[in-house]
Amino acid sequence: MKLSSLTAHLSVIALLFAAAPVSQAQHDAGAGNAPGDGESRVSVLEQDDGTIVASDPSGTYLYASWNVYFASPFFMRNKMRCGQPFLLSDGGKQTYGSKNDCSYSSTNPKSEYDPAVQKFSIPVVVHVLMHTNGNGAISDAMVQSQIDILNEDFMALPGTNGSPGSDCQVEFYLATVDPNGNATTGITRTTNNNWYNDSGNYKSSLYWNTNKYFNIYTNTASGYLGYAYMPQQGGVVGNSIDGVVCNWRAFGRNSPYGPPYNQGRTTTHEAGHYLGLFHTFDNGCGTTSACYSSGDTICDTNRESGPVYGCPGNSNTCSSQDPFHNYMDYTDDLCMYEFTPEQARRLRCTVEYWRPNLFTSGGGSTLIFEDDFESGDYASGGWVTQNGKCRIHKKSAYSGAWGARLKRLTNVEKTFSTVGFSQVRVNYAAMVTNYTGTKKLLLQWFDGTSWVTVDNVQSSTFANQSVFLPAGAENNPNCRIRFKSKEKTKGSFASFDDVAVWGD
Ligand SMILES: [Zn+2]
């Protein structure tokens, strides 16, 4: 049991409840909303009269208001500032190339992840869930103020609360185009008292393609200030659960809750998880000699054994000053003001390799073409198929209703221009079914003489792939790629979807 710098009194309470699974058990990615819902460990509901009923294994408590609740021992002992579920496994999905540089268990902050390389711009949709009594009905301006705070914090904008931190060169903006191609404000509004209390399967009704949009929901967040999923947990990206849920009272600038959680840092913190960052205190102190594979897998955040609340002048849980000014701790909003340079590199690695279809532009990258096969055929996307064994199939869809399928030994080819670009990157999602031995789905590039394999997939579940084409693919009016299936047994097929080619 990790003890934080709470008062002795609260530490005793925390010890009394050490049996509760504070570190969340394996979360069922397909069911429920807040982590722990499946276990009914903690339940927090706003009643129609505005009072809060909160239950945990120690009993049921009634609070006069959210403000009283947020200041309660219940809030602290159950670590309700954030409900990022804590898993012990890698989720089995970190075996592809440089995903290992930001896996669930380790970080390799190589220079290619330096923010100076390029800016990532991420489209956001905010789903506002409201009660019939008017609670939760935050304004568009309040939503925009939260986006502004994300940018102040992730880009350390001068003259803002986020200026002391590292400039991660990650930018957020409210989406201007919805999944159907229509203009949008990037905000949806739904009145549903059940959903307002974070109950019911609202995400499956409301989510926008989680490969391409950062989905944020505002409601009571099950009594947490917020919760999120790390893509490295596996089964997250592309799933409707992906995204961040924030307590509407702590959302935006000068939000209704008031100090100390009213300056939008809950969303900054949850966005940190969404981009692959652990709490600074996760896994305890870790070891100094293996700081990239223990603790929070980051070396330039000091070691920390448990969350720090408030804003102490000093806090020392692992023989050095705790990193309580970090966004990934639990301190007050105005006490936290930085991601470190290595956190910036880990979250940028996460964008690049775990959320490769999320960023749409970015100070250099330009979309050359994309196809999610929702047209229902290859021809609309300009693909040339080898024979009738190449189909568009519903059961090959990674997102949307349709995906591409290659049966047995077949391939589909695409030609496009890369003139004006000095580097070309291909993103796609793929999996294989009934493949044997070392057989794979190949992504190949034509070098003018022969086909060169640049990437391969053996996974039996969809994996997000991101690969740079070799030198020679750039500045080429007739750049050719193809997907080729290498398994000839009957009943075998490969699926791929969401192909996007980017030029720098
Ligand atoms: Zn958290």
Describe the model:
The chain has 504 residues and is an alpha+beta fold. Helices cover 13% and strands 23% of the residues. The protein has 8 helices and 20 strands. Strands 4, 5, 6, 7, 8 and 9 form a 6-stranded mixed beta sheet that branches. Strands 10, 12, 13, 15, 18 and 20 form a 6-stranded antiparallel beta sheet that branches. The longest helix is centred in the first third of the chain and has 15 residues, at 140-154. It starts with 7 loop residues before the first helix and ends with a strand. Mean pLDDT is 85; it is low at 1-32 and 86-97.
Low-confidence stretches: 1-32, 86-97
Helix and strand run: HEEEHHEHEEHHEEEHHEEEEEEEEEEE
* Category by helix and strand content: alpha+beta
How would you characterize the largest beta sheet?
A: 6 strands, mixed
- Roughly how much helix do the residues carry, as a percent range? 10-25%
- Rg over alpha carbons: 23 Å
Distance between the termini: 48 Å
Number of helices: 8
List the ions, cofactors and other small molecules found in this model.
zinc ion
**What fraction of the residues are assigned to beta strands by DSSP?**
15-25%
Arithmetic mean pLDDT? 85
The general outline is globular
Quick one: how many beta strands? Answer: 20
